[in-house]
Amino acid sequence: EAGVTQSPTHLIKTRGQQATLRCSPISGHTSVYWYQQALGLGLQFLLWYDEGEERNRGNFPPRFSGRQFPNYSSELNVNALELEDSALYLCASSPGTDYGYTFGSGTRLTVV
Amino acid sequence: QKEVEQDPGPLSVPEGAIVSLNCTYSNSAFQYFMWYRQYSRKGPELLMYTYSSGNKEDGRFTAQVDKSSKYISLFIRDSQPSDSATYLCAMGLTGGGNKLTFGTGTQLKVEL
To answer: How far is B44 from chain A (nearest CA, A)?
Structure first.
């Protein structure tokens, strides 16, 4: 069974640009989560999507947004990139509202 | 004060040792408790998932939750060099919007 897949693996952007990160959940999982893992800060909750709807949002500015497609894949968009957005962005999925997430390997975003 | 506190380490032990990893938390409403293992440049991998207080064992791993003390532990028996990784505790609430609150992780090194 394929795990959670994320693309791209690495992304380098210039301050002020937009970044789009993609995630494919495990087959049968309807919930997708996004977390930011910045150096020294641990994993911070960004967004939760379930059945195509945004169900919960963490304490991040509106320039962090995303969506979930009918096939349950998801994308995270970060607009007006700032240097402090440099981090590992992790996507996870779970069946329904189960807390037992499975994480992908992440997208390393570097803003220069 | 952070909701979840975890000693960052690094913790270095000889092969075969029993390892004890711990987290404390401040929110008494947490009911779901997880331990994740994260290897360098990889996403977190779910190791243990417990609900409420008590112990849970899976092979060489034992998770312990003491809600009265707001303290959780992960014990690793017969530690192996392959156990060298960062261990993250995570917690969730009933009705918490499926958000997990993570500790910052403890770096473990098991030496030959």
So the answer is: 6
CA distances to A10, A46, A68, B88 from A54, rounded to whole Å, are 25, 11, 8, 26
Contact A44, A35 (CB under 8 A): yes
**Model confidence at A97: pLDDT above 80:** no
> CB atoms < 10 A from the CB of B90, how many?
25
pLDDT along chain B (112 residues), means of 10: 89 97 95 95 93 90 95 97 97 86 96 94
Categorize the per-residue pLDDT at A83 as very low, low, confident or very high, splitting at 50, 70 and 90.
very high
Position B54 scores a pLDDT of 87
CA distance B10 to A100: 26
Q: Return the sign of the alpha-carbon dihedral for residues B59, B24, B100, B29.
A: positive
Which residue shows structure tokens 């987290």? B23
pLDDT at A95: 87
Within 8 A of A58 by CB-CB distance, chain B residues are 99
Distance CA A104, CA A13 (A): 21
Which residues in A have their CB inside 8 Å of a CB on B? 4, 31, 33, 40-45, 48, 50, 55-56, 58, 90, 92, 94, 97, 99-106
- The 3-class secondary structure across B19-60, one letter per residue, is EEEEEEECCCCCCEEEEEEECCCCCCEEEEEEECCEEEEECC
Burial of A72 (0-12, 13-18, 19+ CB in 10 A): buried
